[in-house]
Design goal:
By secondary structure, the chain is α+β, with helices and mostly antiparallel strands. It folds into 3 domains: 2-123, Rossmann fold (3-Layer(aba) Sandwich); 151-210, 2-Layer Sandwich (Dna Ligase, domain 1); 215-426, D-amino Acid Aminotransferase, Chain A, domain 1 (2-Layer Sandwich), CATH 3.30.470.20. Helices cover 28% and strands 26% of the residues. The protein has 12 helices and 20 strands. Strands 14-13-10-11-12-15-19-17 form an 8-stranded antiparallel beta sheet, sandwiched between helices. The protein has a 5-stranded mixed beta sheet with strand order 1-4-3-2-5. A hairpin with a 5-residue loop joins strand 13 (279-287) and strand 14. The chain starts with a strand and ends in a 7-residue tail after the last strand. It comes from Streptomyces violascens.
């Protein structure tokens, strides 16, 4: 574990401070960071002279951090609660008190809540955060509000395949209760397959839910005071589960119209049920063949993959910046009135890491100028080794699209799927990323 420290500049623009406010009396924000890209540039989210920042970060996350202006940057081997508690206490003792603790990543939300409790810092507590981390808990809250959710059951040590089949039918879906990005999700089609899966999952926290047929959508935005500060609705191209199995994943923003209005309203009801009055959200739902929306799950954070990039480019909103500030109860960076007047057609597409792993990239093609709607792409460099741990961030390729309509963008994404190619070679020796 290593650390660096530096003094902050004097107050300049904090409306609650004056020019005479000593730098060491500005509110101290403790940040848990695992991002190695622009999402870790937290200094962009607080104007100079309004707050002091301290970082708890992995070594991979050092690059985007503004260490020179931070009161402390502590490098830790992992971001587990037990690892962070000691450094967090020392930062509080040396530079505190701590005014707020932020962990924007899905995987740091609960840790941040536990640290708040340990250091007596205001903000979301562990019970509240679990509503958005535990899929069984979140569905209970939404179901109690009268909003349709899939029939679901907790999977315990004594749960049997016949019990689940009798109550949920087949096919059904097994999900880690606190998972993300479809990691560990299984679509089960037969009772014998289910029996085998339950044997493998002994000791794991899983839920089983009925399989609901339909088109999957995601709703993204920011809530302030129990209403939308900003919201968009998109339809997935393929599914997150498909991506985990090796299929490209994308989504397309819905055109203005009755469906977009209905699904934004449905998401509003779900968020009310969960009592998310202020904060970011990435909500997923299914629209059945009969046209009925069904709640799937929601994250208390911005969407991943191409979601934040597309919204920044097409709408001018930084979802990570807004998530950071609403977590702390600060005013948004963006103007709601200006956002309401923006209409855009666009989408994103991410290719999974090519299999089998490990595999070294030999070559890949660019789609810039090939598919006209592609306005940006992030391609892995030749020589990069795919190891199956890249997820959406270190994937086989990511593309952003802008077009004249939902249908035009959807066609462009299908064309990109047909045209993009990766050439890889097997890696015989273990190679670290």
């Amino acid at each position: 574990m290593t650390s660096t420290a530096a003094a902050t500049d004097s107050a300049e623009t904090d409306p609650a401070a004056t020019d005479s406010t000593p730098a060491d009396s500005l509110p101290l924000i403790l940040v848990i960071n695992r991002f190695d890209d622009e999402f870790g540039e937290y200094h962009r989210f607080v104007p100079d002279g309004t707050h002091r920042l301290a970082h708890l970060t992995t070594e991979d996350g050092l690059a985007p951090l503004a260490q020179d202006s931070a009161v402390a940057t502590v490098v830790v081997p992992d971001l587990d609660y037990d690892t962070l508690l000691g450094p967090a206490r020392r930062i509080a003792e040396e530079h505190g008190p701590v005014a707020g603790i932020v962990g924007v990543s899905e995987f740091d939300l609960l840790t941040a809540a536990r640290l708040r409790a340990a250091l007596d810092v205001p903000g979301w507590n562990t019970d509240y955060v679990r509503r958005f981390r535990d899929k069984t808990v979140m569905k209970k809250w939404v179901d109690l509000a009268g909003v349709r959710v899939p029939r679901h059951l907790e999977v315990g040590a004594d749960t049997t395949a016949p019990q689940l089949v009798a109550q949920l039918g087949l096919p059904l879906v097994l999900k880690p209760r606190d998972g993300a990005a479809s990691r560990g999700v299984r679509l089960i089609r037969t009772e014998s397959e289910l029996t085998g899966a339950l044997t493998e999952l002994v000791g794991e926290e899983y839920e089983a839910e009925e399989y609901v047929e339909g088109r999957i959508h995601h709703v993204d935005g920011i809530r302030l005071g129990g209403r939308y500060h900003f919201v968009t609705v998109s339809e997935y191209v393929n599914t997150c589960l498909d991506f985990a199995r090796g299929t490209p994943l994308g989504s397309v923003l819905l055109d203005p119209g009755p469906l977009r209005t209905e699904l934004a309203g449905f998401a509003h009801d779900c968020l009310d049920a969960l009592e998310l009055w202020d904060g970011p959200f990435h909500l997923e739902l299914i629209v059945t063949p009969a046209g009925e929306p069904v709640f799937l799950e929601v994250g208390l954070r911005p969407g991943g993959a191409g979601v934040p990039f597309l919204h920044r480019d097409l709408y001018g909103i930084d979802l990570f910046g807004e998530a950071f500030r609403t977590t702390l109860g600060l005013e948004p960076l963006s103007d709601e009135g200006e956002l309401e007047g923006v209409e855009a057609s666009g989408g994103w597409l991410v290719f999974p890491e090519p299999r089998p792993w490990p595999a070294r990239l030999v070559d890949r093609v660019s789609l810039s100028g090939v598919v006209p709607e592609v306005y940006a792409e992030a391609l892995p460099a030749p020589g990069h080794v795919f190891d199956g741990e890249g997820g959406y961030d270190h994937a086989g390729g990511r593309f952003l699209f802008r077009g004249g309509s939902q249908a035009a963008v959807h066609r462009a994404i299908r064309e990109a799927i047909a045209r993009y190619r990766l050439e890889v070679e097997p890696v015989t020796a273990t190679v670290e990323r």
